Amino acid sequence: MSAGKGERVDRSETMRRVHGRDTSPELRVRRMLHAAGFRFRLQRQDLPGKPDLVLPRFGIALFVNGCFWHWHGCKRSRMPSTNRDYWERKIARNVARDRVNIAALETLGWDVRMLWECELTAATNALIAELLARDNLAAARAHCRPTAIESGAASGV
Questions:
Q1: 0.90 exceeded by the pTM?
Q2: CA 59 → CA 94, 137, 153, distances in Å?
Q3: Among 30, 31, 24, which Cα is nearest to 43's?
């Protein structure tokens, strides 16, 4: 039995609501990073895969992935029972595209990170802690570096 016209419109409307950017998980990560004092770029068009967030200062390209759409393997990655062939092909294409984009970004020197929807808060907090530690280490190194005046370069010694 085929779906009626009204049912197709409903399914079409549902799929139209699925966005590739400004998703709830992505907005949560952005708020957390911003509150911690980090600044970032969104959806850089010039990078493979248009990472959700880019932290240029740290060389990090960040993807905020839905467990179902990018097949994390957790309990949220459950294959739908209807139209299974379509979903298996769709998700396999997503996973293959992710691999290609990650490899391309790594070739360009980016540190690629994936934040999964099921681990979002914990993974974002861990990332923030790592970035703060790297930031503090850089600040400490800069503070300990002798200036030109301290090293005697200004006086010609």
A1: no
A2: 24, 16, 33
A3: 30
